[in-house]
Design goal:
Layout (H helix, E strand, L loop, with lengths): L6 E4 L5 H15 L6 H8 L5 H9 L2 E7 L2 E9 L3 E7 L8 H15 L4 E7 L3 H6 L3 E10 L2 E11 L11
Helix pairs in contact: 1-2, 1-3
Length: 168
Amino acid sequence: MSRSAPALRPYLPDDAPLLAAIFAASIMDLTGDDYSEAQQEAWAMAADDEAAFGKKLAGELTLIATLQGAPVGFASLKGADLIDMLYVHPSAVGQGVGSALCDALEKIASARGTKTLKVDASDTALEFFRKRGYVAQQRNSVTINDEWLANTTMQKQLDGVATPGGHA
């Protein structure tokens, strides 16, 4: 059976509970090498209030990636130039979901005239963004639910020319 590429669709309000579950599973299952259990739990708690989480997603340009029709990841663009969230369910890692979401946000930002796209990448996501041409700018410490977590602000120059075949 050949693996199908992820399909993308816009966020819908009914998606909030499922995306909250993807968010928590991604954090708890994928970030253990970089963050303590207390840090993971504090971070994942950001989705405990599904209404507030849904409101945040609805307030940004949020895309959902699906495999065989089932949501397996999501990403959001905050404002014109910040990838605010990019989360993939652990069961779908390595299937092009994160890349498809990131490609789409880069194309949208570029089409809107954005020259530089930024992301505050978790230590777990650093290599993913580095491979995509993002360059580390600064280290940050953020407090989430009384736990300190480190991340890195990274940025990528967008050339503003989207070419067929997915290479901007």
